[in-house]
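Data deposition worksheet. Section B asks for the primary sequence of the deposited chain exactly as it was used as input, without tags or linkers unless they were present during the calculation. Section C holds the resulting structure in token form. Section D is free text for depositor observations; keep each observation to a single sentence. Incomplete worksheets are returned to the depositor.
Section A, Depositor: J.P.
Section B:
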Amino acid sequence: MLTDPISDYLTRIRNASRAGHRVVNIPASNLKKEMTKILFDQGYILSYKFEDDSVQGNIKIALKYNKLSKEPIIKKLQRVSKPGLRKYASADELPRVLNGLGIAIVSTSHGVMTSKQAKQENVGGEVLCYVY
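Section C:
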């Protein structure tokens, strides 16, 4: 049993990219699926596939690397809100990551989105993680 499935999700992606793996398998949940869609839309991963073969299902994520230097595109995945200390931000207090070069993934009442989208829709929520 995992106490923090989002942290496990981020750690699996981080470890696979550092080890140079092309594909990583992660146990699925609705929140993880939404986070994966955001990572794909923002260009941090190459592709993804949802497999519903078992009870829980899996997410297959193809990681993206720089063609010349073979460095992973995702430099850092940082968990912000943890089970022991939740971090919430209103629409005006949403963080900018690396002066707008990175993204912050936020869970709002309108769904999971980036901090830029949340500011446009004028909603706040729980800041899940930073990606850059």
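Section D:
The chain is about 25% helix and 30% strand.
The two ends are 29 Å apart (CA to CA).
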